[in-house]
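ingest -> fold -> write
write: protein_1
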Amino acid sequence: MMKLGQINTLEILRETDHGVYLVDEENNEVLLPNRYVPDAFKIWDKIEVFVYLDNEERLVATTDKPYITLGDFALLRCSAVTEYGAFLDWGLVKELFCPFKEQVFKMKPGGWYLVHCYLDEKTERLVASSKTNRFLDNKELKVGQFDEVDIIASHPSDMGWNVIVNKIHSGLIFNDTIFNDINVGDKFKGVVKKIREGNKLDVVIGQVGYRNIEPNAKRILEELEDNSGYINLTDKSDPEAIKEQLQMSKKSFKKAIGTLYKQKQVDLKPDGIYKL
């Protein structure tokens, strides 16, 4: 079945003056204009295309890959604002429309905005919304504690960063677990650290708990290699000094050096850590 707003694998059916017509398994056809037709092809060759509506609201295919697809979230640049709304650059000839009613703040040309792409049921057009929270739902969670998840940074708060989890849930990364700069639209791998009352998700970047020991131990070994086998840190070092040098909490640091010491990979002395 041909899917609007998504990447489709279709077959080349026939050639015309305007391009080639592609067909899906249900015999639905769509035009691939000449500018996107491969230099060499055969009838019934398969080709990956993105399907959307052109400026005349006709179904059309393109081999260009958009920055966002139906149901996804992405950081896009506003290229123009009209009396009807904003137009966003999503990598295609026809830009993605974001009506004023779907803007958290009024968009301005040149600005970058995190948006969700959805299908407007009235117009049957792909449109964008910067009101991303309304496309997230935590009533029925599809993730559990310690599950690895995909994270998109949404917006900061006093407690940390609000994030989009697996494109369906909302979550929060607390400030005390953030060791690097985060910007709107940044994408990370993370772990669900805790599920609080009301299905609120506490998320951390990377791994958590016992899964966090080995990666942090590796980080310390790499730092030792880069510093001739010595790090001027101990279990009594200031947490901020540990965070600045190793981008981890003091608790994670102590667990990691304990692991390395037990494995006889390091020696712990009053003035620092030495690689064995």
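write: protein_2
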Amino acid sequence: MTQDHKHLHLQIRGDHSEIAVITLTRPTKRNALNDALVMALRDTFQNLPDTVRAAVVHGEGDHFCAGLDLSELSERDAGQGVMHSRMWHTALDALEKGRVPVVAALHGAVVGGGLELASACHIRVADETTFFALPEGTRGIFVGGGGSVRVPKLIGAARMADMMFTGRVYKAAEAERVGLTQYLVPAGSAFDKAFELATRIASNAPLTNYALIHALPRIAEQPADHGLFTESLVAAIAQSAPEAKARVRAFLDGKAAKVSKD
């Protein structure tokens, strides 16, 4: 199955149509985000086919996403600015708080709104060409697509402030060290690694994946005693699912692979 928007391509892949591949297709604009593309991302993730269990987001051409398309930035009063930012929030919430885990395959520029998009994904794979920046501070504006919430959770508020104060650019190796990406791979191989991870994730029990998307971030922000109680509830629900019981039985019967260092 394939589906095209003017600047976005959706392809459903995998033996059981379980992987959604979402491609930003504005290579001549370094895949910069305009309102139409942001809304297409929202609609795509809100309407994924029921067979899909994981998704990969990547960019066509030399860059993942160079951020907001400033050539389409229009003047807004304060109220309009709030509404515009909230539209981005709704769209990126559809990735972060949707039904399936999302893996970002990163290369080239991951800048401004592109970093906000990447930070809404659950796993980030960067190749050696990737660089990260938040130039909003030097342009007299502020992040509006959820970056002030999501990016500090990855690298801390002080590092994010440094990026915006000074225009600091993180290259791929340093970005992995500070937590902007979980995986670093050779140039040109980010998509293959991301697809491999998405395939592995899609084989998990759907309820466990859903709990990792929706319960784990909330537990992390709760007071410890609240988090522990929430954990107990989620653990009980997850292990009661028929698929979980079957997987545990398969392990006990020696029919499931054991964890190894390889």
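write: annotation protein_2
Residues 206-252 form a domain with the Lyase 2-enoyl-coa Hydratase; Chain  A, domain 2 fold (CATH 1.10.12.10).
The beta strands are 2-5, 8-13, 19-24, 54-59, 102-106, 109-111, 123-127, 131-133, 170-171, 183-185.
pipeline exit 0
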